[in-house]
Write a structure and sequence with these properties.
- The protein is an alpha/beta fold.
- The protein is about 40% helix and about 15% strand.
- The chain has a seven-stranded mixed beta sheet with strand order 7-6-8-9-10-13-14, sandwiched between helices. The chain has a five-stranded parallel beta sheet with strand order 2-1-3-4-5, with helices on both faces. The chain has a two-stranded antiparallel sheet with strand order 11-12.
- Strand 8, helix 9 (about 240-250) and strand 9 (about 255-260) form a beta-alpha-beta unit.
- Helix 3 (about 55-70) packs across helix 11.
- The chain is globular.
């Protein structure tokens, strides 16, 4: 991945070249799928049922809030933005079926806000074959950083796990770290990131536990890590099994420092854990959603209130909102004669994009906009607060 300086240094000539090559449609030319004079239609396959349902719901809520914000202001080049969402239950086979339906029958312009590594791994080849952009999936898997039709908003799992290991070793001097993973491509992606961070420091995991996707069957994983006597445990999973693992581990008297990835679904995790959540650290890839000194967080909260009165701000819907804002920015830069290739190329030569202070930088060989990782912790009241360093385990 090229350096930030190199990415920002994209020339005006490169931008102009893309604009020169952009097709200009006439009335005689075929219409672009999902694009009419009145609207642009986007599709989303995500979990709206099962143990990861809050993740899909959060992403959809944020995207729709951003789209409503744009639509209320007159749309983008006079077109309304619409989102058609289908439930895949966080299962790869359903994601394939949904993706084909959205592309071949619903004729969506692009896919946005897919949830998960195993589902994205299954859906991306379908989208790629059809030349359909796959925008801002809710996953930090490394393979998505190499796909030509994928545009990533967030930092990678490798960056999140590097931050975890750095904080554990530097802030607390922890040497004995165990890892628990979901038994699929998501878990393996997270484990690969942890191992890369360990390799940099000459470390190894003291134990590795595994549990099946879409279950809370975590007791075997607890037995596996208990024998390693860890000082800290990094968990790669969704909120229900992660909450179950933490609660059971603390119930049996093992109380390491727990850290988990942004994919977990932070608000849902805190709700599932209740009082047992105090001291659990979660890395995030978006700013704190209730921050008063953040312009983009303030914009998100306004859009959220306008879309759904009483909706609670959260990290997942904030990421969805930013995904929607990225779509809007790309469409605005494309001009009225948008098509799928132009949409992707516009982002690849965009250089720096400022979303009310949240900065994204893309390049022709870099499809990931943000490298930012933020640390948060659940306090004794079950609420998240920003953290500047790790403070150790909390005794229950």
């Amino acid at each position: 991945m090229r350096s930030r300086a190199a990415r920002v240094a994209l020339t005006a000539a490169a931008w102009a070249a893309t604009m020169v090559l952009a097709p200009v449609r006439t009335a005689a030319q075929p219409e672009v799928p999902g694009v009419s004079a009145e609207r642009v239609l986007f599709g989303q396959s995500a979990a709206f049922s099962g143990p990861a349902a809050e993740l899909g719901r959060g992403m959809r809520l944020g995207i729709e809030a951003a789209f409503k914000e744009a639509n209320d202001a007159g749309g983008v080049h006079g077109r309304r933005l619409e989102l058609h969402s289908l439930d895949d239950g966080y299962e790869p086979e359903a994601a394939i079926e949904n993706t084909r339906l959205l592309i071949e029958e619903e004729n969506v312009f692009a896919l946005v806000g897919g949830v998960g590594t195993p589902t994205s791994r299954s859906a991306v080849p379908v989208a790629d074959e059809a030349g359909v952009p796959y925008i801002a999936p809710f996953t930090g898997a490394g393979f998505l950083r190499q796909e030509p039709h994928v545009i990533n908003l967030r930092a990678s799992y490798a960056q999140e796990t590097e931050e975890m290991v750095e904080r554990l070793t530097r802030d607390l001097g922890v040497e004995r770290i165990a890892v628990v993973i979901q038994n699929d491509s998501f878990g393996r992606a997270g484990l690969a990131g942890v191992r890369a961070a360990f390799d940099k420091r000459g470390m190894e995991a003291v134990a590795i536990g595994v549990y099946p996707r879409n279950t809370t069957a975590v007791k075997t994983a607890i037995v596996d890590i208990e024998v390693g006597e860890p000082e800290a445990v990094i968990i790669v999973g969704a909120y229900q099994p992660v909450a179950s693992l933490i609660a059971w581990t603390r119930h049996i008297g093992l109380d390491p420092v727990f850290m988990t990835l942004s994919f977990v679904g932070s608000n849902a995790l805190a709700e599932e854990l209740g009082p047992r959540g105090a001291g659990v650290y979660v890395t995030q890839v978006v700013p704190f959603p209730t921050a008063r000194n953040s312009r983009v967080a303030a914009a998100y909260r306004r859009a959220l209130r306008a879309h759904t009165a009483g909706a609670e701000p959260g990290f997942v819907s904030f990421e969805g909102y930013l995904a929607g804002r990225l779509v809007i920015e790309a469409l605005e830069r494309c001009g009225p004669n948008v098509d799928r290739d132009l949409f992707i190329q516009t982002l690849k030569v965009a250089g720096s994009i400022d979303l009310d202070g949240f900065r994204l930088v893309f390049g022709d060989e870099d499809n990931q906009g943000s490298d930012a990782v933020f640390l948060t912790v659940i306090d004794e009241r079950g609420r998240y607060r920003p953290a500047t360093r790790l403070e150790g385990a909390v005794t229950q």
